[in-house]
Design a protein that fits this description.
Elements: E1 12-13, E2 22-38, H1 41-53, H2 58-82, E3 86-97, E4 101-115
Parallel strand pairs: 1-3
Antiparallel strand pairs: 2-4, 3-4
Length: 130
């Protein structure tokens, strides 16, 4: 499983309550990104056999990773619709629905941030890794 490219999402996403090097200038409020996914019956049967033998259920891992990325994209789009360029205090919630589907919810606080030096930006960019 690879980590998503940080530039994949149109806003800066952080699980932190603040963002070092940036100042929050506006708080828009809570935003959500939701998705519900299910696997086909044959995949579920195959996963059941694999679970009896032990080991990672790679098909289910991929499904959940794809669902997580979709929830993050929807969260980003909702934040942008308010004019936000970042989401802070990002969290996930996962639930099973009727033993056939998984719900993934991403939620956080939509904000507008600027670098601490005051230079406005359309999209906040994290510092480059060194």
């Amino acid at each position: 499983m690879t980590r998503p490219d940080p530039q994949q999402f149109p806003v800066l996403l952080s699980t932190m309550n603040d963002l070092p090097g940036y100042r929050v200038t506006r708080v828009y409020g809570e935003v959500f990104g939701l998705t519900v996914r299910s696997r086909n019956v044959f995949s579920n049967i195959g996963a059941g056999f694999k679970a009896m033998a032990g080991g990672e259920l790679k098909g289910l891992s991929k499904l959940l990773a794809d669902s997580r990325n979709e929830a993050l994209l929807r969260l980003s789009q909702e934040a942008m619709s308010y004019g936000a360029n970042a989401v802070l205090a990002l969290r996930f919630d996962c639930n099973e629905i009727a033993q056939t589907a998984s719900e993934i919810a991403a939620y956080g606080t939509a904000v507008y941030v600027v670098p601490e030096d005051g230079t406005p930006q359309q999209q906040a960019q994290p510092p480059q890794a060194q």
